[in-house]
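notes to self, project folder thing:

trying the whole complex as one job this time. last attempt i did each chain seperately and stitching them together was a nightmare. two parts in total, labels are on each line so i dont mix them up again. if this works i'll redo the older ones the same way
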Amino acid sequence: MSNQPRLPMTPHPYPGKLIIVEGIDGSGKSTQLLLLNKWLESKGHKVFFTEWNSSELVKETTKRGKKNKSLTPTTFSLLHATDFASRLFHEILPPLKAGMIVLADRYMYTAFARDVVRGVSPEWVRKLYSFAITPDMAFYFKVPIEVAISRLLGGTRGQFKYYEAGMDMNLTPDVTESFRIFQSSILAQYEKIVDEFQLITLDATKDIEAQQNDMRRLVGEALKDYKPRRGTHGRRTVFWRRFDVPKSE
Amino acid sequence: MVDAQYFGDGLTYLNPSDLKGKLIAIEGTDGVGRSTHIEMLQEWLEVQGYGVLTTGWTRSNLMSKTIEMAKEGNILDRWSFSLLYATDFADRLEHEIIPALRSGYIVLADRYIYTAFARDFVRSGNRQWVRDVFGFALIPDLVCYLRIDVETLVLRVIETKGINYWESGMDLRLGNDLYDSFKKYQSLLIEEFDKMAEEFHFEVVDARKSPDEIQEELRSKIQPLLTARLRSPELPSDRLIQPAPSS
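result (full assembly):
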């Protein structure tokens, strides 16, 4: 690994492939990534899955900070960067070096969108993540705010979480309204990021299977020249077990 | 801090211009005697009637347990290592240091961002990233650097608390045992501190002198900051042993 900060779009030098998904809560990105994972494994690929804010190192701290509401925009951003760094080093780079396909539910673009809405400097948060590697494919699931809200409220959860709705920003005491304002600002940031980092935009209002077909077609093309590394038989459960039912942050 | 400034990309949601207090950082490598001197400085300042807040590296409410856990597990990569310290520092900056400065306190910081700079540089050979990360830090009014040579340091550390894993940089595999590793690691840190002393204009204090001499020297470096404060009418004179009037 180089110690120099990379330019934003420099390809990584590893034999594996890194595919990431981005989008606001309720965009359906996690469902799509799960289905992509099923497909890739059915094709015999070795796949490793990792998600935002899941490292052992800082998960508990973030939870505690959220619970006692002591997180500031800066500590919130730094904790997520620490989580990302830890996962990059321990979870993302080893399988990429081994030639596997790594699927990431959210990547640094989540921080570029969300942390900036919370109030940190856009330049600072980009420098913070300058050690990250550029994904081979980055999908953005574009969805209007009302669709996301009705999906989340109509789904299993029934209500918004405190930070997910941006309640820490004291926008309004009404949780749904706060979610609407907060996530709309995030959508606006994503629009800029899509251009800046050339994310692939998918229409997330389509049917699940139509979106998945689009995604599989694009991934299939991108993997045309990819030489999968096949390990010994029957060992894939080790990684499979780490993949749970998708949930947003 | 009349014209308080951020080191780099600052906190966009927090204007530092109304900070009345003074921020003094005491830097220097492990085992050089920083905390002893900070205790004495606090006593000296409080006797003169100044409000004093001492803040220590890795001592934030949010992060101190997390950092201990991470160190026990030895599972730190270079980036997490520096980012954990940055999170700890940000938590203390926003919840302790800035509120104290706003109320006119003198803040004594046991270690500051330069410690993170030195440790990250020794691990990465790159100076820029960690300096970008700590861009939200306030530039202190004064940085006192307790300078020591590694030969004196190693004897002092063995005599007092003993050599430990992280102070020896054992994660870097610099030597075959604690002693060799400690000396190599601390030499690299001291070398980098010396370079930063010039770059950032630290006040260098020779930490091989007797504790009394060191303390006297530290006080003489701090004194001019206090005299400057006399010009603001709402602050107490350093000659009057009484608390600041609550306005």
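what i see at first glance: Strands of chain A lie at 17-22, 47-51, 101-105, 137-142, 200-203.
need to look closer tmrw
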